[in-house]
Design brief:
single chain; alpha+beta; 5-stranded antiparallel sheet; 2 helices; 5 strands
Length: 93
């Protein structure tokens, strides 16, 4: 499999949450060696967060993915609240 590269950063890790992907990239020759991006479609990278510290970058990657999980769960809960409730079968008798 070929390396994924964006703006010179080699993508080494990714976390998929629904249709959103969060990726971690590394470029040794840059003072901000690490980056996390949101990504759609495998090659549409946006909202880059740049770091010089590896652990801060990894923390950001996990935090972004966790935020998206929370968002998706809240969305699902709101959709469930809008669904009409089925009548109680005990009351129908």
């Amino acid at each position: 499999m070929a390396d994924r590269i964006n703006q010179g950063y080699v993508i080494t890790d990714s976390i998929q949450v629904g249709e959103m992907e969060f990726v971690f990239g590394k470029m040794d020759s840059n003072p901000s060696m690490y980056v996390t991006w949101a990504c759609k479609g495998g090659n549409n990278y946006f909202w880059g967060h740049y770091f010089s510290d590896l652990l801060e970058a990894k923390k950001d990657l996990l935090g972004r993915a966790n935020d998206e999980v929370r968002y998706q769960m809240e969305r699902r809960a709101r959709a469930a609240e809008r669904q009409p409730k089925e009548p109680d079968k005990e009351c129908e008798r």
